[in-house]
Write a structure and sequence with these properties.
Helices cover 27% and strands 31% of the residues. The chain is of the alpha+beta class and 241 residues long. The strands form three sheets. A five-stranded antiparallel beta sheet has the order 1-2-3-7-6, with helices on one face.
């Protein structure tokens, strides 16, 4: 998945096909899973109970839940919390342990997460590259005319660039939600710079949300183009109280 990473130990079940952790400053843990090998007994065997709200869900949704919770548990073992079970708040946002900032995402057969004890807002996202037709149809909703011109000037297919922009803005939303608890639409953040070779991006907010998160704040992100997927990671210093 990443150019430099270390593998994570796999369970005996073929449900988790591969897993690893990047060796970046703020590592990203990831796993690939096969929903066809999901079965209810795994939740009990791994002590990761399936919530009542998902008992009637389709297999795909149950598999995503189990894979993402397994990944969180493996990652948090490095924080001395090997038995942590991720739950959700009433607004469906994840409830992380005190003192840890983290973010989680999944798409199709992949889950990713990032976590740190550093005082940072953290947002991570993984997306499957959208179809060219979808990119064209959703461009007006996802990006400003100026952003579209920036993407068209980059040496990458427009669908890949549009997916990258979508993922970057998802990472912004995930990073800022624990601080703002405000919904954001795609035009409330703007991608100013994209360095495809270095995998780095700069964004800004298009409105003032509070005294700290304003249009003057520049947000820095990393991104990885991995085959038919895009992974983005945005970090920003937490507001000082």
């Amino acid at each position: 998945m990443f150019a430099s990473e270390t593998p994570l130990a796999l369970p005996s079940s073929p449900f988790i096909r591969a897993a690893g952790m990047s060796l970046d400053t703020l590592p990203i843990a990831w796993c690939e899973f096969d929903q066809h090998h999901w079965h209810a007994e795994l939740h009990q065997a791994w002590q990761l109970p399936l919530p009542a709200s998902l008992q009637s869900a389709v297999t795909k949704r149950k598999a995503e839940h189990l894979a993402s919770r397994w990944l969180v548990q493996q990652n948090f073992a490095h924080f001395g919390l090997p038995h942590f079970v991720l739950c959700n708040a009433p607004d469906r946002s994840p409830l992380w342990p005190a003192g840890i900032q983290a973010s989680l995402s999944h798409t199709h057969s992949v889950a990713v997460m990032a976590a740190t004890r550093e005082p940072l807002c953290v947002g991570v996202d993984v997306e499957q590259i959208m179809a060219e037709e979808t990119a064209d149809e959703t461009a007006e909703m996802l990006m400003s005319p100026a952003e579209k011109q920036r993407l068209l000037a980059r040496p990458m297919p427009f669908a890949q660039a549009a997916t990258l922009l979508f993922s970057l803005k998802e990472s912004v939303y995930k990073a800022l939600w624990p601080q703002l608890h405000q919904p954001m639409d795609f035009l409330q953040a703007e991608v100013l710079e994209l360095d495809v070779q270095q995998g780095r991006a700069t964004l800004r907010l298009c409105q003032d949300f509070d005294e700290y998160f304003t249009t003057k704040a520049l947000l820095q992100a990393r991104f990885w183009l991995a085959g038919d997927r895009v992974i983005t990671l945005l970090t920003h210093p937490l507001p000082t109280k």
